Protein: OmpA-like domain-containing protein
Organism: Pelobium manganitolerans
Amino acid sequence: MKRLLSLLFLLMAFQIGFGQEKYTTNSRNAIKSYEKARYLLDLNEFKQAADELNAAIKQDDKFIEAYLLLADVYRVTFDQLKAKESYRKAFAIAPNFAPDRYYYLAESELKTGDYQQALEHYKIYKQRGNPSIERIVLADKYILDCEFALNAIKNPVPFKPENLGPNVNTADQEYLAALTTDESVLIFTRQINRNEDFYRSYKKGESWTKAEYLSSNINTPSYNEGAQCLSPDGQFLFFTGCNRPDGLGRCDIYVSKKEGDNWSKPVNLGFPINTKGWESQPSLSADGKTLFFVSDRRGGIGSYDIWKSTLGDDGQWTAPVNLGSNVNTPYDEQSPFIHPDNQTLYFSSNGWPGLGNKDLFVTRLDSAGNWSTPENLGYPINTYGEESGLTINASGTKAFFSSNNFSGYGGFDIYAFPLPEKIRPIAVNYVKGVVFDAESKAPLGAIVDIIDLKEDRSIHTSYSDKVDGTFLATLSNGKEYVLNVSKDGYLFYSENFSVEKNQIGKPILLEVPLQKIAVGKKVVLKNIFFDSNKYDLKSHSKIELQKLIEFLKENPLTEIQISGHTDDVGDDKSNLVLSQNRSKAVYNYLIAHGIAEKRLSYKGYGEASPIADNTTEEGRANNRRTEFIITSVGR
């Protein structure tokens, strides 16, 4: 729609004419062809009009009006190279004939990467033409683009794109790649006969498997599906659907949930995300709580702006907020991609200084919640063409994008390239696990909660896949985490782990066996903390204790014993007393927080029940533990 409106706007040039009765030719045949071309343009017959104008020029190669009108035809039909050639021929004959047309000559030069000439001709336009205030503003903006581009070309950034190969790319169009955090799954858009559908490919070693049709639950024969993003764990697909029966506007954002190898029927996110306008190009933060997207709704700064909405505690999306003038301009901002570090946003724009059309930019969120001035990713990542749709891997080392500028398999193909150091995000890692029944080994769908231990803040809450039991969560480096996994009818699972600052590309891999609630079953509370040789509960223990309280409230007939254990360092008597006091500290905490005393007991075992070898520090650490054991499940 936007392209059509632009075309109609540019066609107004044909109706304006040159403000004169006579032409710069005396050839009747040339004038006849020229007049016929004008008639054909009224009918939007561009090719036939171009043929007539070329015929007019053949009759008189000094016919300036014919050159200029032919240049306009090429320009509005997006053949900028031929437009540039025709404008130049006209001005070579008479440099001052139609000085306002220098604006369009400069435009065609800018859009074909002829920056020095474009710079000169924008300046000539301002000097000799009769520009409106609006056109002066535009000309000044494009002059800045030309100056930026000339400097960028002198200072290129490293850029070595590699085609993802024939299993992903075909003679059709492939674009808009979305990637799971572990880089194991790629979902992209493929256009066949003007119909857009999603396809999926898996990473096997260094190669991608043959792409397969994603799902008939999402893809449709009647509508286009595109502009998608994956939640970092690959469990949710957010995408754009246009003109659907359940849509609120021209294009809306939808979500589908992964169900084993298939996907659920999409659900329209509804108001306030979607409106009567145009909402598209979603990007979800790593914690799943912030959705970035593009909209032309009221209250924006330009035609298309980037907005964000957060997921409230009630599970509803809040009223979207514009990212503001640090990101959005009076022009177009599109294709947002928020990196899993939750601080680095990549997007495309034709408003910030660039190399023409849309360029890729990066902006970073500071500690005060402000976005930095966007930085152009540089040449030759950006060119005079349109660049958009960038996806960055979790470690920040590799970018995925689509292009038709290289010798690929046909049309747009998907490529990857090493991201230059200067424009990389903060590297993040991930934890990947599988939840299963401890006895049957059957995969389980369960609630997975990961908490930043120091900040006492949940950073990831989701469900493991009910078909294969897998879960995945993005993690910042240099932090300690608490993992709690729970499911009705089962004891919860407790774990803690840390991710070192330099632990890039080394994910945490976990197996999570869940035990059914039964007498004699026990859980090691791995996130109960005491200082050495003390029994005062440290503040970080409250996370785990709250989980235990929730478990007991959800299972009101269950009774437990809290047991304390030590390693074999020190004398037996001291260890026994210490373990008794530690188990009592947990017992007292539970009673103080509403758990009936009759449901609880406690006991210290000292060093009598080791679960690991006391000859190593790791073994002794495992033996120093607090557990609870089921003593009754009621009737």
